[in-house]
Amino acid sequence: MTINKFNSANLNPGQKVAVKYFIAAMLLFVAQIVFGLIAGAQYLMPELFYNVLDFSVVRMVHINAMIIWMLFGFMGAIYWLVEDESGRPLVGVFLANLAFWLFSIAVTIVVLVYLFIQIGPGTQETLWLINEGREYIEAPRWADIGIVICVLIFFYNIAATFMKGKWSGISGVLVLDLVALAGLYLAGMWYTPNISMDQYWWWWVIHMWVEATWEVLVGCIMAWGLIKVLGAKRTVVTTWLYIEVALMFGSGILGIGHHYFWIGTPEYWLSIGGFFSALEPVPLVGMVVHAVYDSGKHDFKNNNHPAMAWLIAHAFGNFFGAGVFGFMHTLPQINLYTHGTQWSASHGHFAFFGAYATICIAVFYIAVQKWRGDVYMSGDTKGAWRWKWSCILLNLGVVGMTMALLVSGYDQTFIERAQEGATWGGYFKAQLSTWFQQGMWWRQVFGYVTAAGIVLLVWDLLTIGKHETKEIVEV
Amino acid sequence: MSNSTWWASESFWRKTAIWVTAFMLVVLILLTFDTVKKITAGHSKVPAYSVINNRIYYKYDKEEEHYMPIIGAEAPLFGKKLTEQEAMDLVSLGKMTTQAKNCMNCHTLLGNGAYYAPDLTKAWLDQGWAAESVREDLMIKFLMNPDKNPRGYGSKRKMPNLGITEEEARGVVAFLKWMSSIDTNGFPNKFRSIPQEGDNDY
């Protein structure tokens, strides 16, 4: 094993596929931030790219790049661990590569169409070829079908590898979760003129992904990550994983009701949604306890400090971003006023980053370490300032944006909703108010902090361990 | 954690996870059957598309203790009464146009979407359209040429020109009118509507 150079010979076939996903994920992560900066700037300078690259297009690329880079990160993470966990080689390496390239080419075409064609006439052809116009799942129908095919290939590869190899608690949960994750996507692939019906099923995709199946997926990655990085005991992490699944699906499945307060759905969703979504932070507390317990039990002795830092950032980010900031406005009495304001943007930034970006970054570091031949990676590794500062800047940037958006959200809720009764006039009165504007300025400042963090992150992932001569610490 | 106690054992939590997930899923499916029935157009919470032939109010209901849409007397959109099928076709053209033009990445619809532009849930009833008599006209003009008819209330934010045709604009107006008739459990609260004929508050 050659130490400190990127060498594919250090990787098993599944991991070679994974690395491709990770690189594509990082490229899309960078794109997400660039488009986020433009969208933020448009709040401050509405004339920026007006009628050329309007906010709607920029924001769509911002959130779609995010969804896809996270999916790539998860798929990469699973390809990374599958051979390790199943004890046998990946069954379909060619298929895995084929699906990767198909998926990547499809994403590239979709983004180019978003940027250069943008919109079309109000016909089915537009929904099939250009843009479906539904937040988060804007990808045109042809791409939906492509995504389903690629995900089926992925699922076959993972499930078949485990079936031919050995099963574990982690892989069992993972495979069942993937069935749900892939199946749910189908709920978002049809057209109806009825907006209430549309949004009812649309939430089956969005909520059931980000507040249920994605959470369980990262629970699996976290469990595997703690075994790898800390040397945590498998029985302990597996038991925790089951507890989290019980609590996550126990609260999250009916927690979908918090999206059914105001879309024309029956009133019983106010009670069901309010109650179960208020419980949604509970499993996230469990994850924090779990991560802290395991870390403490091993005296924080681990073989990959940057990955460990990001795993801990994940535990806390998930709890505060998804849990606390979600809980803040999940009860219908509050949500009546905050629904559809910058509160949601505040929660959204913190939650997606805290729950999902963090754990993908942790896996990137695990991958880089092995790719460089199990090199030593620690707080005193050469150039360690880069991983430390990228971690600090990214977390500070996102938390800063979250707080800034929350100030704007409070102001908007108060002026537009409580005082003005949500009219268009009230909307603009709030948007023009001083506190709202100040919040938007601070959001932009922290957006640049986040961008500085990602520049360092890219630099670090390309260079960490390059000049290191020591080998990985045994755990 | 030790496997010696049943409540901390792997197998106990595996079974719990499976049973809890299965139970919640069954409850969700049962609720979905009921909800889907109730949100099908034509039900009391989501009116039939032909509601665009009538005047729609948004009033505080003392019994329900929240604001509710009220279907009023006949007031056909663009002065032409439509059959249920014609109304559905027009609303569908409008809904499809809102998707094709990516409205949801600036606006919110039923509160869902992006926050760069006003919520559209009750846009049909907004006071910004001045008076009932000029509303339809103003909406069509705005949708077709938003850059020349900005409605930013002193903000520099303007809707971009999305190449909406007159036919599509009529569809969008029909869709917005129909959407304003959906009973959204009181969202948005305290929304003050445009003065309309037959409205006792004016």
Keywords:
heterodimer; A: about 475 residues; mainly alpha; about 75% helix; B: alpha+beta; Cytochrome Bc1 Complex, Chain D, domain 2; two-stranded antiparallel sheet; about 35% helix
Termini separation of chain B comes to 69 Å
Count of helical segments of chain A? 16
The secondary-structure class of chain B comes to alpha+beta
Number of domains of chain B: 2
How is the CATH topology of the largest domain in chain B named? Cytochrome Bc1 Complex, Chain D, domain 2
- Taken as a percent bin, the fraction of beta residues of chain A is under 5%
List the secondary-structure elements of chain B in sequence, H or E: HEEHEEHH
User: What is the number of helical segments of chain B per DSSP (H or I, 4+ residues)?
Assistant: 4
Largest beta sheet of chain B: what is the strand line-up? 1-2
Q: What share of residues are in beta strands of chain B?
A: 5-15%
**Can you write the helix and strand succession of chain A as a string?**
HHHHHHHHHHHHHHHH
The major beta sheet of chain A can be summarized as: none
Total beta-strand segments of chain A: 0
Oligomer: heterodimer
